[in-house]
Every structure is written in structure tokens, then in C-alpha cells.
Design a protein that fits this description.
8 helices; 43% helix; alpha/beta; 6 strands; 231 residues; single chain
């Protein structure tokens, strides 16, 4: 039965000028995932890769860890439908609301800038998902969900064997929420628990799509614990 492995990219470069690239830790995470797949003799028959740099870099590092295979040795395609939402667009709309921008700057100037950023980004996400301010966004939550569903349908339509889909946390949470029948808020909140270079498994059969697992990251247990990250 065809199986889709929805793989979240490795850690991106939070503090770099270009966020859309893997950090050193992100590269290690992706390569380690490949080695974990190799240990179970799991191989992809097809690869779908989102159009972002961190998606492609994760695919390259993962396949390098998978006994040195390269992207060119496997049937693959780039599908921008699997791209993440524009987090800068969400933040722009959020920080222009009265008082929010100033408070976010103040919180990020504290001892833990990442924690301060995360608190406000969660609020920005809730605002986007609510649907109450759709005219402020280039892509609404509803449009994002429709785009991701289109990518999922395309990946599963002609799936044969194992399909590796390299994408982002927001896309994976949207897919899992759709398959489970969750509401928008619950779907979006799934993304906060998704580890970098974790994967979720969906099977495609005659009865439709079934979610078998979500956020599998046991390959970061034990002595590999230092590779685990969520942001």
C-alpha cells in the first residue's frame, strides 16, 4: 500500500540573514534521519520536495545519510504547493496591530529572545487562522489549507511504494488536521509539537487517506538527544 512520509525540514537558520537555509544542526538532523531510514532498509520510490531551499537541503542531506544516495538517483519532483506559509506576512499583519509590535520588540530584548519571539508568533498564528482579518494577508489560512491539500492529493494520486515529501511544519500540521477532521485552531497548534527532521506517515488506499503516525522522532532518542530541536 502506498505510504507518504511527510518529513519536516531540519532546523532553519533563525539568526541568519537568510532564514530559508539549514543551520549546522539542521544539516546534522537531516543526515541522521537518512541513517535512521537506512538502518530499517526504508527507501523512497519517489520524492516530492517543496520549493524552499531548506526543503531541498533536507532532502539532499537525508539521502546522503541514506547510504550515500543522491536526489538524482531517485524519481523526484519539486512541488511549490508544499511550501510553508509566509511567516513574515503573518508577523507584518500582527505587529501593525496597536501595541503588539512594541511589546514583541521588548520581549525579544529579554534574556531569551527565541522564547519571546515564539510567544508572539503563536499569537500571530492564531490571528491568521481566525479568519477575522483575511483581507490583511496575501494568503489566508483557508487558501493555505487548500494549497496544501492540492499538494497532498497530487502526491497520493499516483503514489507507488514509499513517497518522501520534504516540507515544513505548518504544511504537515495542516495535512494531519485535515485527515483527522480537526478544526483550524487545533490543526495549526499541531505545528508547535513537530520536531525538526521528524516525519509523519500517511497511507493511501481505496478508503482514502489514513494517518498512521505523526511527529515520529525516536531517531533522536538516547545518545542522539542533542540533535533534537523544535524551532
Amino acid at each position: 500500500m502506498p505510504a507518504l512520509y511527510l518529513i519536516r525540514h531540519g532546523q532553519a537558520s533563525f539568526d541568519a540573514e537568510d532564514y530559508d537555509q539549514l543551520s549546522s544542526l539542521g544539516e546534522q538532523q537531516a543526515a541522521h534521519l537518512g541513517r535512521a531510514f537506512a538502518a530499517t532498509a526504508l527507501r523512497p520510490q519517489h520524492i516530492v520536495c517543496g520549493g524552499m531551499k531548506r526543503h531541498r537541503q533536507t532532502a539532499e542531506q537525508c539521502l546522503a545519510g541514506l547510504n550515500g544516495e543522491s536526489v538524482s538517483e531517485v524519481d523526484w519532483q519539486i512541488d511549490p504547493d508544499w511550501n510553508e506559509y509566509d511567516h513574515l506576512d503573518l508577523l507584518q499583519a500582527y505587529t501593525t496591530a496597536p501595541g503588539q509590535g512594541e511589546q514583541m520588540v521588548a520581549d525579544m530584548a529579554g534574556e531569551n529572545p527565541r522564547a519571546g519571539f515564539q510567544r508572539h508568533f503563536a499569537k500571530a498564528m492564531q490571528r491568521w487562522v481566525s479568519g477575522q482579518y483575511d483581507d490583511e494577508y496575501a494568503e489566508t489560512w483557508a487558501q493555505f489549507s487548500t494549497r496544501i491539500r492540492r499538494g497532498l492529493d497530487a502526491a497520493s494520486r499516483n503514489a507507488k511504494g514509499n513517497v518522501f515529501v520534504f516540507t515544513s511544519g505548518g504544511a504537515i500540521s495542516a495535512v494531519c488536521g485535515q485527515v483527522l477532521g480537526l478544526n483550524a485552531n487545533a490543526s495549526a497548534e499541531l505545528s508547535w509539537q513537530l520536531a525538526n527532521a521528524a516525519y509523519s506517515k500517511i497511507i493511501s488506499g481505496q478508503s482514502g487517506l489514513k494517518l498512521l503516525s505523526i511527529n515520529e522522532h525516536s531517531h533522536f532518542d538516547g545518545r542522539h538527544r542533542e540533535l533534537l530541536s523544535y524551532r
